[in-house]
Amino acid sequence: MERTVCELFAGVGGFRLGLEKASKDWDFVWSNQWEPKRKSQDAFQCYIHNFGESDRHVNIDINKVDKSIIPNHNLLVGGFPCQDYSVASTGAKGIQGKKGVLWWSIYETLKVKNPSFILLENVDRLLKSPSKQRGRDFGVMLACLNNLNYSVEWRVINAAEYGFAQRRRRVFIFAYKNDTRFSECLEYNSLREYLHKEGFFQKEFPIQDNSNPKKIPKEIEFDYNGLVDVSDNFSFMFLNSGIMRKGKIYTEETLPDFKGDVKTLGDILEKDVDEKYYLNGELDDWDYMKGSKRIERVSKTGHKYTFSEGAIAFPDPIDKPSRTMLTSESSKNRSTHIIRDPQTNRLRKLTPVECERLNGFDDNWTNKGMSERFRYFCMGNALVVGLVEKMGNALVDIFKKEE
Ligand SMILES: C[S@@+](CC[C@H](N)C(=O)[O-])C[C@H]1O[C@@H](n2cnc3c(N)ncnc32)[C@H](O)[C@@H]1O
């Protein structure tokens, strides 16, 4: 099977970099990146800087792309936002999802281009959204994929639990057509056995034999009468791992089984850091922001309530993996990392290169004409490249067997 790839929501290219680290033989036939509401398209430019100018990398709102112009490909990849996936009936016209919701662009591409394999990334909240109808959005997504004859596996992966220097937890979703060779290995006694023995994630991200005893695994029939039915009525507590195949869903709270080396925040720090990253005289602000607090507040409707939040370690310990990096990393913000520099013993922010290292990008990957603020932003949006590299290794094997 040709290793042709389409990369949607490419950002600065985390999926491509990860897959190319696993093998140079992936052929990226089309990719797309467009930053809403911004004139300068820095992430798009950064991608071109790193992978080369090409008319295959397109800077247009994906909602406006006629999906039939996308070249055929066997693997579709992308990290996209968690939005409202509900659908409504529009009478004779069929059904409609909310405007601008990016899942529908992915669905449209799948319908038109029919790739055999799909690898997606999202925040783990996707599995539980929305709060008033737990699991509806992921249910809609699974139903869409089921309608197109895909089986789907998902796994919430905390990069630090597999040796990486950042505690970044994201759900990865792998889907494959039910007529691929890979899907044949699903002829197992049970979906549980499959997940533990042959699952896509199991080889590179091993799990323990026993699942988390606090959460009971569940298997259900995935019966529905169209997408509107799922959107209106489906609710389910998806756990961190699972599989959907031909009308059945199995989910389980798995536990990582990792025995390799563990990286820490201290391992990725730069030496001789510029003075501008050091804090000067603003310690009280940081102390307050990072500290625990209880504040009496009044809502717009006049209702009194207590806002409370716990303390965040300050400074951030460098002998452990870091907390998750957010898009707001450049601002003076409670979740911004502050470390005590081991060389100078003074407090400072992380540098853009350190943020790149936390995600496993090459040094200065984003140092391509964009502002420092946007460099931090792009890293808050991106993924841990090493995770995709590992998935890339598994994909190389799978593609070989499809030949
Ligand atoms: C979660 S980020 C993905 C980051 C990427 N995986 C990386 O490694 O940098 C989602 C990306 O989708 C882009 N995006 C948002 N809306 C879009 C749209 N309507 N069309 C195309 N891209 C869009 C954002 O600019 C952002 O770069």
UniProtKB/TrEMBL annotation:
What reaction does this catalyse?
a 2'-deoxycytidine in DNA + S-adenosyl-L-methionine = a 5-methyl-2'-deoxycytidine in DNA + S-adenosyl-L-homocysteine + H(+)
Q: Does the keyword Methyltransferase apply?
A: yes
Pfam families, alphabetized: DNA_methylase (PF00145)
Q: Name one GO molecular function term.
A: DNA (cytosine-5-)-methyltransferase activity
Arranged from A to Z, the UniProt key words for this protein are: Methyltransferase, Restriction system, S-adenosyl-L-methionine, Transferase
Q: Which residues form the active site?
A: 82
Name the enzyme group at the top EC level.
Answer: transferase
At the top level, the lineage of the source is Bacteria
EC number(s) given by UniProt = 2.1.1.37
Q: GO terms for biological process?
A: DNA restriction-modification system; methylation
List the PANTHER family.
TRNA (CYTOSINE(38)-C(5))-METHYLTRANSFERASE
Q: Which family does it belong to?
A: Belongs to the class I-like SAM-binding methyltransferase superfamily. C5-methyltransferase family.
The protein, known as: Cytosine-specific methyltransferase
Source organism of the structure: Anaeromonas frigoriresistens
